[in-house]
Prior knowledge:
With about 230 residues, this protein is α/β, with parallel strands linked by helices. It has helices at about 75-80, 120-130, 155-160, 185-190, 205-220; strands at about 1-10, 20-25, 40-45, 55, 65-70, 90-95, 110-115, 140-145, 165-170, 180, 200-205, 225-230. The chain folds into 2 domains: about 1-95, Elongation Factor Tu (Ef-tu), domain 3; about 105-230, Rossmann fold (3-Layer(aba) Sandwich), CATH 3.40.50.80. The longest helix is centred in the middle third of the chain and has 13 residues, at about 120-130. The model has no long low-confidence stretch (mean pLDDT about 95).
Amino acid sequence: MQLKERVDLTDAACDERIIKIKLVHLDSKQVAHFVPGQYVRMGIPCLKEPAPAYFAIASSPGDKDGFEFVIKCTAGISEKLASLALGSELELEGPMGKGFDLQPFRQHDVILMGVGTGIAPLRSVWRNLIQHRKDYGKISIYAGFLTPFHRLLTDEMDELSEYNIDVSVSLETGHQDWDGAVGYVQHALKADAPNGENAVACLAGMSVMVDACTETLLGLGFNEQRILLNF
């Protein structure tokens, strides 16, 4: 595949650079079907360094013209992707992993919880849910970021209300211009206390966040079999 697009999601005031990239097939064919939340192994042809790495797909299976990814530019291939020339070739293996298969949970409420770039696989889920909106009940997203400068996909998430999708954004560190929740995503979830009787939750992020959110969901009466991870 080749690198077609690259957009910065964070501005110069942020201490992290996070980008959104789009890859397309060299022959312009459609991408293969995958389960929302799956990931790929991405590398640069003929180069051992930087080594290939795994990235969650951030686009929907319905986006047939290519794969999108939301990537934090740290050391290794993710840093290289921030400067690689558009049109450069990349090797992909996958999609792989179990993803978030919500087919068995039609007509259920859906809760998506993620922090930082953990929002990437959840974006794949919510874009797919939009395309099948009538098949599901209430949809709620709990997204957490470090500071206002670390927020991602702000405009896109603001537009989700058009599809009757609720979005709660929590910041670990508040700001004088911030009037939203301050703390962790599990705190916002606990404050809302959603009914878990007919709901399924998808979690994406660091293990400590996943563990804390799982504990909160169980405390709210969620069925452990309906708390899903994508790996």
